[in-house]
């Protein structure tokens, strides 16, 4: 087995990398002397991947919305009726799982018995058990979860912004699906999706802690055979208009004060590697420089009582989609929306202060450095970067490569105030 090593002497960090004969990509970030361990095992499969071609077949298939999340729920249940959570509890590990737009991941953290826990993780993810009875049982559970999110104002203001931004991209569809869509899920469909997307070549295993790569690979060998290598899955690319679907979307829920998101959709999908990372970093620099806690904008609107400590920004720039959000709570979200557009238009005309850009770069680099002090944050961040063919140890270098001209181009391309969205949840 060929183990490759990438080091960053400035950080004092190392990444070990190997491709198992099954196609599984395994990454170890050794943390000598650390008492805590973290493992995250993910497949490049999320709610977006509803139309795809099974490796070795010619015809596209479309599956019900919410199936990736449904699979995540069912994976913990084993054939003998036991639950993987129970096994982790016995070893003292903390375990969890999540489904996002483009990845499903299973994880645990522990301070002891790491390889025993790794054995449990690889065992249940690689040996699914679906029956008519247990699939039907899960429909009720997930149906209740969907209804719960329907009344969650944070979730609604977020997803409504996606619905207003996107015409065709399935990122606008709730990750859990709908009560109607999950009613069409059967064991046959689950096995079809599992065998397609949970093939090892479509998956990554990221391990952080005082871990030996050779020892970890023994457990990979135990649970995964080479004949399961079907290659990376080809999903159908979606054509998305540049223009927003609508400018304004509103919902009334039980909130004490209006919640809002101002949203900007990315119009350059299907990038990967450092090009994708640089685009994300450029976006984050702009958001930090213009709207961060030390910005003139934030201090002015906070002093005027238009925003409070809930105000913040986020960006999610991935291979198949991208967007940025600015928001929080406000008694006058329409006024804040106007102020956001005004400051961005001013930046378009006059440029962003170079000192603010330099400060923003330092903030991003500082966050990256602090990441290496927490095994959970390392694992959760790195699996996303590695999925996108990015080097987690090279983040600082990419930040430093961003120029003022890069920022100007990204500002005009992404933060088009004639194409943004306002999503508001107002009190009933």
Describe this structure as you would to a colleague.
The relative contact order is 0.17. The protein has helices at about 65-75, 85-90, 115-125, 130-150, 155-165, 180, 185-195, 215-225, 275-290, 295-305, 335-350, 355-370, 375-385, 395-400, 405-415; strands spanning about 5-10, 15-20, 25-30, 35-45, 50-55, 60, 95-100, 105-110, 205-210, 235, 250-255, 260-265, 310-315, 320-330, 420-425. It has two domains: about 5-235, 2-Layer Sandwich (Cytochrome Bc1 Complex, Chain A, domain 1); about 250-425, Cytochrome Bc1 Complex, Chain A, domain 1. α2 (about 85-90) runs antiparallel to α3 (about 115-125), α9 (about 275-290) crosses α12 and α9 (about 275-290) packs across α15. β7 and β8 (about 105-110) form a beta hairpin. By secondary structure, it is an alpha+beta fold. The chain contains 15 helices and 15 strands. A seven-stranded mixed sheet has the order 1-2-3-9-4-8-7, with helices on both faces. The model has no long low-confidence stretch (mean pLDDT about 95). Helix content is about 40%, strand content about 20%.
* CATH homologous superfamily designation of the largest domain: Metalloenzyme, LuxS/M16 peptidase-like
Shape: globular
CATH class of the largest domain: Alpha Beta
Our count of domains comes out at: 2
Total number of strands: 15
Rg is 22 Å
How many helical stretches?
15
The CATH topology of the largest domain turns out to be Cytochrome Bc1 Complex, Chain A, domain 1
User: Which regions contain 5 or more consecutive residues with pLDDT less than 50?
Assistant: none
What is the beta-strand fraction? 15-25%
Helix content: 40-55%
| Secondary-structure content class | alpha+beta
What's the helix-strand series? EEEEEEHHEEHHHHHEHEEEHHEEHHHHHE
Report the major sheet: 7 strands, mixed
Mean pLDDT, as a whole number? 95
């Amino acid at each position: 087995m060929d183990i490759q090593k990438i080091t960053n002497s400035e950080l004092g960090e190392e990444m070990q990398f190997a491709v198992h004969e099954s196609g599984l990509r395994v990454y170890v970030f050794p943390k000598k002397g650390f008492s805590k361990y973290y493992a995250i095992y993910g497949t490049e499969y999320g709610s977006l991947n509803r139309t795809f071609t099974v490796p070795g077949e010619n015809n596209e298939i479309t599956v019900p919305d919410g199936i990736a999340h449904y699979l995540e729920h069912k994976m913990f249940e084993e054939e003998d009726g036991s639950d993987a959570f129970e096994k982790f509890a016995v070893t003292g590990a903390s375990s969890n799982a999540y489904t996002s737009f483009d990845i499903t991941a299973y994880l645990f953290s522990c301070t002891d018995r790491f390889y025993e826990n790794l054995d449990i993780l690889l065992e249940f993810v690689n040996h699914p058990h679906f029956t008519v009875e247990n699939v039907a049982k899960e429909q009720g559970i997930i149906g209740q979860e969907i209804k719960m999110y329907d009344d969650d104002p944070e979730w609604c203001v977020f997803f409504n912004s996606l619905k207003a931004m996107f015409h065709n991209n399935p990122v606008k569809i709730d990750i859990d699906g709908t009560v109607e869509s999950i009613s069409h899920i059967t064991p046959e469909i689950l096995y079809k999706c599992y065998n397609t997307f949970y093939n090892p070549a479509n998956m990554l295993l990221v391990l952080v802690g005082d871990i030996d790569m050779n020892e970890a690979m023994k457990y990979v060998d135990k649970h995964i055979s080479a004949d399961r290598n079907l290659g990376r899955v080809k999903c159908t690319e979606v054509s998305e208009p540049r223009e927003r679907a609508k400018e304004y979307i509103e919902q009334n829920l039980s909130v004490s004060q209006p919640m809002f998101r101002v949203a900007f959709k990315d119009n350059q999908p299907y990038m990967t590697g450092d090009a994708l990372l640089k685009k994300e970093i450029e976006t984050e620099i702009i958001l930090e420089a213009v709207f961060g806690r030390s910005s003139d904008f934030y201090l002015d609107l906070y002093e005027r009582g238009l925003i409070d400590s809930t105000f913040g920004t986020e960006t999610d720039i991935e291979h198949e989609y991208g967007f940025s959000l600015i928001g929080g709570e406000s008694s006058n979200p329409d006024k804040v929306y106007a102020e956001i557009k005004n400051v961005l238009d001013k930046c378009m005309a006059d440029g962003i202060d170079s000192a603010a850009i330099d400060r923003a770069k330092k903030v991003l680099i500082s966050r990256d450095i602090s990441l290496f002090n927490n095994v959970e944050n390392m694992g959760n961040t790195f699996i996303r970067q590695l999925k996108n063919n990015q080097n987690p140890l090279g983040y600082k270098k990419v930040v430093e490569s961003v120029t003022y001209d890069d920022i100007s181009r990204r500002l005009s391309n992404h933060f088009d105030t004639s194409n943004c969205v306002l999503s508001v949840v107002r009190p009933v």
